[in-house]
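Hey, I was hoping to borrow your eyes for a little while. No rush at all, and the record is pasted right below:
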Amino acid sequence: MESSTIGLIGLAVMGENLVLNMESKGFSVSVFNRSTGKVDAFLQNRAKGKRITGTYTLKELVGSLERPRKVMMMVKAGQPVDELIDQLVPLLDTGDIIIDGGNSHFPDTTRRTLYVESKGLLYIGTGVSGGEEGALLGPSIMPGGSKKAWPLVRPILQTIAAKIEDGSPCCEWIGEEGAGHFVKMVHNGIEYGDMQLICETYQVMKDLLGMTPDDMSRVFEDWNQGELHSYLIEITADILHRKDSDGTPLVDRILDTAGQKGTGQWTVQAALNLGIPLTLISEAVFARSLSAMKEERVNASKTLLLHASRITRHASLSIDDLRHALYAAKIISYAQGYMLMQAGAREYGWNLNPGAIARVWRGGCIIRSAFLGKIEEAFSRNPDLKNLLLDPYFAGIVNEAQDPLRKVISEAILQGIPVPAFTAALNFFDGYRSERLPANLLQAQRDYFGAHTYERVDKERGEFFHTQWKQSTSKEQG
Protein backbone atom coordinates (compact mmCIF):
# COMPACT_ATOMS: atom_id res chain seq x y z
CA MET A 1 0.00 0.00 0.00
CA GLU A 2 1.30 3.47 -0.92
CA SER A 3 2.35 5.57 2.06
CA SER A 4 0.36 8.70 2.81
CA THR A 5 1.90 12.19 2.73
CA ILE A 6 0.49 13.19 6.10
CA GLY A 7 -1.65 11.82 8.92
CA LEU A 8 -4.40 13.67 10.75
CA ILE A 9 -5.92 12.86 14.14
CA GLY A 10 -9.33 14.24 15.10
CA LEU A 11 -12.29 14.01 12.74
CA ALA A 12 -14.54 16.76 13.99
CA VAL A 13 -15.71 19.09 11.22
CA MET A 14 -12.49 21.17 11.17
CA GLY A 15 -10.38 18.02 10.96
CA GLU A 16 -12.50 16.46 8.21
CA ASN A 17 -12.44 19.65 6.18
CA LEU A 18 -8.67 20.00 6.44
CA VAL A 19 -8.28 16.40 5.26
CA LEU A 20 -10.54 17.05 2.27
CA ASN A 21 -8.64 20.25 1.53
CA MET A 22 -5.31 18.40 1.59
CA GLU A 23 -6.62 15.58 -0.60
CA SER A 24 -8.08 18.02 -3.14
CA LYS A 25 -4.62 19.62 -3.46
CA GLY A 26 -2.95 16.32 -4.34
CA PHE A 27 -1.86 15.01 -0.95
CA SER A 28 -2.74 11.54 0.31
CA VAL A 29 -3.91 11.50 3.92
CA SER A 30 -4.24 8.87 6.63
CA VAL A 31 -6.81 9.60 9.33
CA PHE A 32 -7.46 8.43 12.88
CA ASN A 33 -10.06 9.28 15.48
CA ARG A 34 -10.31 8.07 19.06
CA SER A 35 -13.94 7.08 18.36
CA THR A 36 -13.19 4.79 15.45
CA GLY A 37 -16.82 4.88 14.26
CA LYS A 38 -16.08 8.38 12.99
CA VAL A 39 -13.36 6.97 10.76
CA ASP A 40 -15.82 4.55 9.16
CA ALA A 41 -18.49 7.23 8.76
CA PHE A 42 -16.00 9.60 7.11
CA LEU A 43 -14.70 6.93 4.71
CA GLN A 44 -18.20 5.89 3.72
CA ASN A 45 -19.42 9.43 3.10
CA ARG A 46 -17.33 12.57 2.52
CA ALA A 47 -14.04 10.71 1.97
CA LYS A 48 -15.43 8.00 -0.31
CA GLY A 49 -13.35 7.42 -3.42
CA LYS A 50 -10.59 9.79 -2.34
CA ARG A 51 -6.92 9.23 -1.47
CA ILE A 52 -7.78 9.03 2.21
CA THR A 53 -6.79 6.00 4.31
CA GLY A 54 -8.61 5.10 7.51
CA THR A 55 -6.60 3.76 10.42
CA TYR A 56 -7.82 2.40 13.75
CA THR A 57 -4.81 2.67 16.03
CA LEU A 58 -2.09 5.28 16.36
CA LYS A 59 0.49 2.64 15.52
CA GLU A 60 -1.35 1.88 12.28
CA LEU A 61 -1.57 5.60 11.48
CA VAL A 62 2.16 6.14 12.00
CA GLY A 63 2.99 3.02 9.98
CA SER A 64 1.00 4.28 7.01
CA LEU A 65 3.02 7.48 6.55
CA GLU A 66 5.99 8.33 4.36
CA ARG A 67 9.19 9.46 6.10
CA PRO A 68 9.84 11.80 7.73
CA ARG A 69 6.39 11.24 9.18
CA LYS A 70 4.08 14.20 9.62
CA VAL A 71 1.20 13.80 12.07
CA MET A 72 -1.28 16.64 12.52
CA MET A 73 -3.46 16.80 15.64
CA MET A 74 -6.87 18.48 15.48
CA VAL A 75 -8.04 17.79 19.02
CA LYS A 76 -9.32 19.89 21.91
CA ALA A 77 -6.70 22.20 23.41
CA GLY A 78 -5.21 21.40 26.81
CA GLN A 79 -4.65 18.01 28.39
CA PRO A 80 -5.86 16.00 25.34
CA VAL A 81 -2.94 17.42 23.32
CA ASP A 82 -0.38 16.43 25.96
CA GLU A 83 -1.86 12.94 26.26
CA LEU A 84 -1.77 12.45 22.50
CA ILE A 85 1.85 13.64 22.28
CA ASP A 86 2.83 11.13 24.97
CA GLN A 87 1.20 8.35 22.94
CA LEU A 88 2.81 9.44 19.66
CA VAL A 89 6.40 10.00 20.81
CA PRO A 90 7.26 6.29 21.32
CA LEU A 91 5.86 5.45 17.87
CA LEU A 92 7.88 8.03 15.94
CA ASP A 93 11.50 8.16 14.83
CA THR A 94 14.14 10.91 14.89
CA GLY A 95 13.17 13.79 12.61
CA ASP A 96 9.45 12.96 12.48
CA ILE A 97 7.08 15.89 12.95
CA ILE A 98 4.07 16.42 15.21
CA ILE A 99 1.78 19.32 14.23
CA ASP A 100 -0.79 20.85 16.58
CA GLY A 101 -3.44 22.65 14.54
CA GLY A 102 -5.77 23.39 17.44
CA ASN A 103 -6.26 26.57 19.49
CA SER A 104 -3.53 25.82 22.01
CA HIS A 105 -2.27 28.45 24.45
CA PHE A 106 1.16 29.64 23.30
CA PRO A 107 3.03 28.83 26.57
CA ASP A 108 1.84 25.23 26.20
CA THR A 109 3.20 25.15 22.64
CA THR A 110 6.56 26.49 23.80
CA ARG A 111 6.71 23.79 26.49
CA ARG A 112 5.66 21.06 24.06
CA THR A 113 8.18 22.15 21.42
CA LEU A 114 11.04 21.83 23.91
CA TYR A 115 9.74 18.46 25.15
CA VAL A 116 9.25 16.94 21.69
CA GLU A 117 12.64 18.23 20.50
CA SER A 118 14.25 16.60 23.57
CA LYS A 119 12.96 13.29 22.18
CA GLY A 120 14.67 13.86 18.83
CA LEU A 121 11.44 14.84 17.09
CA LEU A 122 10.21 18.12 15.61
CA TYR A 123 7.12 20.09 16.60
CA ILE A 124 4.90 22.62 14.86
CA GLY A 125 2.25 24.59 16.75
CA THR A 126 0.14 26.34 14.16
CA GLY A 127 -2.80 28.68 14.33
CA VAL A 128 -5.50 27.85 11.78
CA SER A 129 -8.16 30.49 11.18
CA GLY A 130 -11.17 30.57 8.91
CA GLY A 131 -13.67 28.28 10.56
CA GLU A 132 -15.14 25.26 8.87
CA GLU A 133 -15.32 26.90 5.44
CA GLY A 134 -11.72 28.10 5.65
CA ALA A 135 -10.49 24.64 6.63
CA LEU A 136 -12.13 23.21 3.51
CA LEU A 137 -11.39 25.93 0.96
CA GLY A 138 -8.23 27.52 2.33
CA PRO A 139 -7.54 28.87 5.83
CA SER A 140 -5.02 31.35 7.16
CA ILE A 141 -2.21 29.32 8.72
CA MET A 142 0.31 30.60 11.30
CA PRO A 143 3.00 27.96 11.97
CA GLY A 144 5.68 28.16 14.65
CA GLY A 145 7.84 25.74 16.62
CA SER A 146 10.84 23.75 15.38
CA LYS A 147 12.33 25.75 12.51
CA LYS A 148 13.93 22.60 11.05
CA ALA A 149 10.42 21.26 10.44
CA TRP A 150 9.29 24.24 8.36
CA PRO A 151 10.87 23.19 5.00
CA LEU A 152 9.27 19.76 5.44
CA VAL A 153 5.72 20.96 6.14
CA ARG A 154 5.83 24.14 4.07
CA PRO A 155 4.77 22.52 0.76
CA ILE A 156 1.64 21.11 2.40
CA LEU A 157 0.63 24.08 4.55
CA GLN A 158 1.22 26.74 1.90
CA THR A 159 -0.61 24.68 -0.72
CA ILE A 160 -3.76 24.24 1.38
CA ALA A 161 -3.76 27.83 2.67
CA ALA A 162 -5.90 30.63 1.28
CA LYS A 163 -4.31 32.76 -1.47
CA ILE A 164 -4.47 36.53 -1.94
CA GLU A 165 -4.87 38.32 -5.28
CA ASP A 166 -1.27 37.80 -6.44
CA GLY A 167 -1.38 34.11 -5.53
CA SER A 168 0.70 34.45 -2.35
CA PRO A 169 -0.30 31.89 0.30
CA CYS A 170 -1.78 33.08 3.60
CA CYS A 171 0.79 30.98 5.41
CA GLU A 172 4.28 32.06 6.46
CA TRP A 173 6.73 30.88 9.09
CA ILE A 174 5.96 32.94 12.20
CA GLY A 175 8.75 32.04 14.61
CA GLU A 176 10.11 29.50 17.05
CA GLU A 177 8.43 27.81 20.01
CA GLY A 178 4.93 29.21 20.68
CA ALA A 179 5.13 32.12 18.20
CA GLY A 180 2.54 30.69 15.81
CA HIS A 181 -0.08 30.17 18.48
CA PHE A 182 0.78 33.56 20.04
CA VAL A 183 0.02 35.32 16.75
CA LYS A 184 -3.18 33.27 16.36
CA MET A 185 -4.17 34.32 19.88
CA VAL A 186 -3.66 38.00 18.99
CA HIS A 187 -5.64 37.42 15.79
CA ASN A 188 -8.53 36.14 17.89
CA GLY A 189 -8.26 39.11 20.24
CA ILE A 190 -8.41 41.51 17.28
CA GLU A 191 -11.41 39.54 16.04
CA TYR A 192 -13.14 40.24 19.39
CA GLY A 193 -12.44 43.94 18.93
CA ASP A 194 -13.68 44.03 15.33
CA MET A 195 -16.91 42.25 16.24
CA GLN A 196 -17.58 44.47 19.27
CA LEU A 197 -17.05 47.65 17.23
CA ILE A 198 -19.49 46.40 14.60
CA CYS A 199 -22.02 45.51 17.30
CA GLU A 200 -21.74 48.95 18.88
CA THR A 201 -22.24 50.51 15.44
CA TYR A 202 -25.35 48.36 15.03
CA GLN A 203 -26.72 49.49 18.40
CA VAL A 204 -26.13 53.17 17.59
CA MET A 205 -27.91 52.69 14.25
CA LYS A 206 -30.79 50.92 16.00
CA ASP A 207 -31.27 52.93 19.21
CA LEU A 208 -30.00 56.37 18.21
CA LEU A 209 -30.78 56.60 14.49
CA GLY A 210 -33.89 54.43 14.56
CA MET A 211 -32.79 52.31 11.59
CA THR A 212 -34.36 48.97 10.68
CA PRO A 213 -32.24 45.86 10.09
CA ASP A 214 -32.89 46.20 6.33
CA ASP A 215 -31.66 49.81 6.47
CA MET A 216 -28.56 48.71 8.31
CA SER A 217 -27.95 45.81 5.93
CA ARG A 218 -27.86 48.18 2.99
CA VAL A 219 -25.39 50.45 4.80
CA PHE A 220 -23.05 47.57 5.65
CA GLU A 221 -23.26 46.36 2.04
CA ASP A 222 -22.24 49.84 0.90
CA TRP A 223 -19.41 50.03 3.44
CA ASN A 224 -18.13 46.68 2.20
CA GLN A 225 -17.31 48.32 -1.13
CA GLY A 226 -14.87 50.78 0.46
CA GLU A 227 -12.08 50.94 3.03
CA LEU A 228 -14.12 48.83 5.47
CA HIS A 229 -14.31 45.90 3.02
CA SER A 230 -13.94 42.76 5.14
CA TYR A 231 -15.43 39.36 5.89
CA LEU A 232 -17.05 40.57 9.13
CA ILE A 233 -18.70 43.58 7.46
CA GLU A 234 -19.92 41.28 4.66
CA ILE A 235 -21.51 38.73 6.99
CA THR A 236 -23.05 41.50 9.12
CA ALA A 237 -24.93 42.74 6.04
CA ASP A 238 -26.15 39.17 5.40
CA ILE A 239 -27.21 38.66 9.01
CA LEU A 240 -29.20 41.90 9.18
CA HIS A 241 -30.99 41.02 5.94
CA ARG A 242 -32.05 37.53 7.08
CA LYS A 243 -35.72 37.03 8.09
CA ASP A 244 -37.31 34.50 10.42
CA SER A 245 -40.11 32.26 9.11
CA ASP A 246 -42.74 34.95 9.84
CA GLY A 247 -40.80 37.75 8.14
CA THR A 248 -39.39 39.24 11.37
CA PRO A 249 -35.66 40.11 11.18
CA LEU A 250 -33.94 37.05 12.62
CA VAL A 251 -31.37 39.17 14.49
CA ASP A 252 -34.20 40.58 16.65
CA ARG A 253 -35.06 37.06 17.81
CA ILE A 254 -31.56 36.14 18.97
CA LEU A 255 -30.90 36.33 22.71
CA ASP A 256 -28.33 39.02 23.55
CA THR A 257 -25.84 36.81 25.39
CA ALA A 258 -22.47 36.23 23.73
CA GLY A 259 -20.28 33.17 24.18
CA GLN A 260 -16.49 32.97 24.18
CA LYS A 261 -13.96 30.16 24.06
CA GLY A 262 -11.14 31.83 26.00
CA THR A 263 -8.68 33.06 23.36
CA GLY A 264 -9.79 36.67 23.91
CA GLN A 265 -9.13 36.26 27.62
CA TRP A 266 -5.68 34.84 26.84
CA THR A 267 -4.93 37.91 24.72
CA VAL A 268 -5.87 40.27 27.54
CA GLN A 269 -3.86 38.23 30.07
CA ALA A 270 -0.82 38.34 27.77
CA ALA A 271 -1.20 42.11 27.45
CA LEU A 272 -1.31 42.47 31.25
CA ASN A 273 1.79 40.28 31.61
CA LEU A 274 3.68 42.31 28.99
CA GLY A 275 2.45 45.71 30.15
CA ILE A 276 0.66 46.61 26.91
CA PRO A 277 -2.47 48.86 27.08
CA LEU A 278 -4.73 46.56 25.07
CA THR A 279 -7.75 48.57 26.12
CA LEU A 280 -10.10 48.08 23.19
CA ILE A 281 -9.80 44.31 22.98
CA SER A 282 -10.08 44.11 26.79
CA GLU A 283 -13.37 46.02 26.62
CA ALA A 284 -14.58 43.67 23.90
CA VAL A 285 -13.88 40.67 26.14
CA PHE A 286 -15.61 42.32 29.12
CA ALA A 287 -18.58 43.27 26.93
CA ARG A 288 -19.17 39.58 26.26
CA SER A 289 -18.95 38.87 29.98
CA LEU A 290 -21.49 41.62 30.68
CA SER A 291 -23.81 40.30 27.97
CA ALA A 292 -23.84 36.91 29.68
CA MET A 293 -25.40 38.51 32.80
CA LYS A 294 -28.79 38.61 31.06
CA GLU A 295 -31.15 38.10 34.01
CA GLU A 296 -29.19 40.54 36.16
CA ARG A 297 -29.31 43.16 33.40
CA VAL A 298 -33.07 42.72 33.00
CA ASN A 299 -33.55 43.35 36.71
CA ALA A 300 -31.14 46.30 36.71
CA SER A 301 -33.01 47.91 33.80
CA LYS A 302 -36.02 48.35 36.11
CA THR A 303 -34.01 50.07 38.84
CA LEU A 304 -31.18 51.96 37.12
CA LEU A 305 -33.08 54.43 34.98
CA LEU A 306 -31.87 56.81 32.29
CA HIS A 307 -32.75 60.39 33.28
CA ALA A 308 -32.26 62.01 29.88
CA SER A 309 -35.11 61.72 27.40
CA ARG A 310 -34.51 59.13 24.74
CA ILE A 311 -34.23 60.37 21.17
CA THR A 312 -35.37 58.00 18.44
CA ARG A 313 -33.56 59.83 15.65
CA HIS A 314 -30.68 62.25 15.95
CA ALA A 315 -30.22 64.44 12.89
CA SER A 316 -26.73 65.68 13.77
CA LEU A 317 -25.23 62.19 13.61
CA SER A 318 -24.78 60.82 10.09
CA ILE A 319 -24.00 57.42 8.64
CA ASP A 320 -20.75 58.92 7.36
CA ASP A 321 -19.84 59.87 10.94
CA LEU A 322 -20.35 56.25 11.94
CA ARG A 323 -18.26 54.97 9.03
CA HIS A 324 -15.34 57.26 9.88
CA ALA A 325 -15.61 56.42 13.58
CA LEU A 326 -15.64 52.69 12.90
CA TYR A 327 -12.61 52.87 10.63
CA ALA A 328 -10.64 55.00 13.10
CA ALA A 329 -11.47 52.70 16.03
CA LYS A 330 -10.51 49.66 13.95
CA ILE A 331 -7.11 51.21 13.19
CA ILE A 332 -6.55 51.86 16.91
CA SER A 333 -7.53 48.30 17.78
CA TYR A 334 -5.04 46.85 15.30
CA ALA A 335 -2.37 49.27 16.52
CA GLN A 336 -2.83 47.83 20.01
CA GLY A 337 -2.72 44.26 18.67
CA TYR A 338 0.54 44.95 16.86
CA MET A 339 1.96 46.56 20.01
CA LEU A 340 1.23 43.28 21.80
CA MET A 341 2.93 41.20 19.10
CA GLN A 342 6.00 43.45 19.14
CA ALA A 343 6.19 43.15 22.94
CA GLY A 344 5.82 39.37 22.71
CA ALA A 345 8.64 39.19 20.19
CA ARG A 346 10.92 41.17 22.51
CA GLU A 347 9.99 39.17 25.60
CA TYR A 348 10.27 35.70 24.08
CA GLY A 349 13.06 36.30 21.56
CA TRP A 350 10.98 35.78 18.43
CA ASN A 351 11.75 37.52 15.15
CA LEU A 352 8.16 38.29 14.12
CA ASN A 353 7.64 39.91 10.73
CA PRO A 354 4.68 42.31 11.12
CA GLY A 355 4.17 42.85 7.40
CA ALA A 356 4.18 39.11 6.70
CA ILE A 357 1.65 38.57 9.50
CA ALA A 358 -0.67 41.12 7.89
CA ARG A 359 -0.33 39.25 4.59
CA VAL A 360 -1.12 35.92 6.28
CA TRP A 361 -4.31 37.50 7.65
CA ARG A 362 -5.42 38.96 4.31
CA GLY A 363 -7.19 35.77 3.21
CA GLY A 364 -8.90 32.78 4.75
CA CYS A 365 -9.20 34.06 8.32
CA ILE A 366 -12.09 35.73 10.13
CA ILE A 367 -10.48 39.19 10.20
CA ARG A 368 -9.52 39.16 6.51
CA SER A 369 -9.97 42.60 4.99
CA ALA A 370 -8.64 45.10 2.47
CA PHE A 371 -7.37 47.09 5.45
CA LEU A 372 -4.67 44.49 6.15
CA GLY A 373 -3.05 45.36 2.84
CA LYS A 374 -2.56 48.90 4.20
CA ILE A 375 -0.85 47.45 7.28
CA GLU A 376 1.48 45.38 5.09
CA GLU A 377 2.32 48.53 3.11
CA ALA A 378 3.02 50.47 6.32
CA PHE A 379 5.61 47.94 7.48
CA SER A 380 7.09 47.77 3.96
CA ARG A 381 7.63 51.53 4.12
CA ASN A 382 9.15 51.30 7.58
CA PRO A 383 10.07 47.83 8.94
CA ASP A 384 10.99 49.45 12.28
CA LEU A 385 7.63 51.21 12.69
CA LYS A 386 6.96 51.49 16.44
CA ASN A 387 3.21 51.93 16.19
CA LEU A 388 0.71 51.81 13.32
CA LEU A 389 -0.65 55.19 14.46
CA LEU A 390 2.71 56.76 13.57
CA ASP A 391 2.53 55.62 9.95
CA PRO A 392 1.62 58.63 7.72
CA TYR A 393 -1.40 56.89 6.16
CA PHE A 394 -2.93 55.72 9.45
CA ALA A 395 -2.02 58.92 11.32
CA GLY A 396 -3.80 60.93 8.62
CA ILE A 397 -6.92 58.76 8.77
CA VAL A 398 -7.21 58.84 12.56
CA ASN A 399 -6.46 62.55 12.83
CA GLU A 400 -9.22 63.30 10.32
CA ALA A 401 -11.67 60.82 11.83
CA GLN A 402 -11.29 61.85 15.47
CA ASP A 403 -14.12 64.40 15.25
CA PRO A 404 -16.70 61.86 13.97
CA LEU A 405 -15.41 59.41 16.60
CA ARG A 406 -15.92 61.99 19.35
CA LYS A 407 -19.38 62.81 18.00
CA VAL A 408 -20.52 59.17 17.89
CA ILE A 409 -19.29 58.54 21.44
CA SER A 410 -20.78 61.78 22.81
CA GLU A 411 -24.21 61.19 21.32
CA ALA A 412 -24.25 57.54 22.40
CA ILE A 413 -23.26 58.40 25.97
CA LEU A 414 -25.82 61.18 26.23
CA GLN A 415 -28.53 58.71 25.21
CA GLY A 416 -27.32 55.92 27.52
CA ILE A 417 -26.07 53.64 24.75
CA PRO A 418 -22.98 51.67 25.86
CA VAL A 419 -20.05 51.99 23.44
CA PRO A 420 -17.11 50.62 25.46
CA ALA A 421 -14.91 49.70 22.47
CA PHE A 422 -15.41 53.04 20.71
CA THR A 423 -14.69 54.85 23.97
CA ALA A 424 -11.57 52.76 24.62
CA ALA A 425 -10.31 53.63 21.13
CA LEU A 426 -10.70 57.36 21.72
CA ASN A 427 -9.23 57.22 25.23
CA PHE A 428 -6.18 55.39 23.91
CA PHE A 429 -5.80 57.90 21.09
CA ASP A 430 -5.97 60.82 23.51
CA GLY A 431 -3.63 59.13 25.98
CA TYR A 432 -1.09 58.10 23.35
CA ARG A 433 -0.93 61.59 21.82
CA SER A 434 -0.58 63.28 25.25
CA GLU A 435 2.87 64.66 25.95
CA ARG A 436 2.01 64.79 29.65
CA LEU A 437 -0.36 62.53 31.59
CA PRO A 438 -1.38 62.78 35.28
CA ALA A 439 0.88 59.86 36.19
CA ASN A 440 3.11 62.37 37.99
CA LEU A 441 0.43 62.67 40.67
CA LEU A 442 -0.06 58.90 40.68
CA GLN A 443 3.66 58.35 41.22
CA ALA A 444 3.63 60.89 44.06
CA GLN A 445 0.77 58.94 45.68
CA ARG A 446 2.78 55.71 45.35
CA ASP A 447 5.77 57.39 46.93
CA TYR A 448 3.60 58.83 49.73
CA PHE A 449 2.12 55.52 50.90
CA GLY A 450 4.79 53.07 49.77
CA ALA A 451 8.09 54.95 49.31
CA HIS A 452 8.16 53.77 45.69
CA THR A 453 10.23 56.81 44.62
CA TYR A 454 9.83 58.95 41.53
CA GLU A 455 11.87 60.60 38.78
CA ARG A 456 11.98 64.37 38.22
CA VAL A 457 11.50 66.33 34.99
CA ASP A 458 14.49 68.53 35.88
CA LYS A 459 16.87 65.58 36.39
CA GLU A 460 18.28 62.80 34.20
CA ARG A 461 16.11 59.73 33.61
CA GLY A 462 17.09 56.87 35.89
CA GLU A 463 17.72 59.04 38.95
CA PHE A 464 15.09 58.35 41.64
CA PHE A 465 13.90 60.46 44.58
CA HIS A 466 11.81 59.94 47.70
CA THR A 467 9.98 62.60 49.73
CA GLN A 468 8.83 62.55 53.38
CA TRP A 469 5.43 63.93 52.38
CA LYS A 470 4.01 64.51 55.89
CA GLN A 471 6.78 66.87 56.88
CA SER A 472 6.36 70.57 56.31
CA THR A 473 9.78 70.73 54.67
CA SER A 474 10.48 68.05 52.10
CA LYS A 475 13.65 66.05 52.39
CA GLU A 476 14.67 64.51 49.14
CA GLN A 477 17.18 61.77 48.75
CA GLY A 478 18.73 60.93 45.42
Summary: The chain has a mean pLDDT of 94.
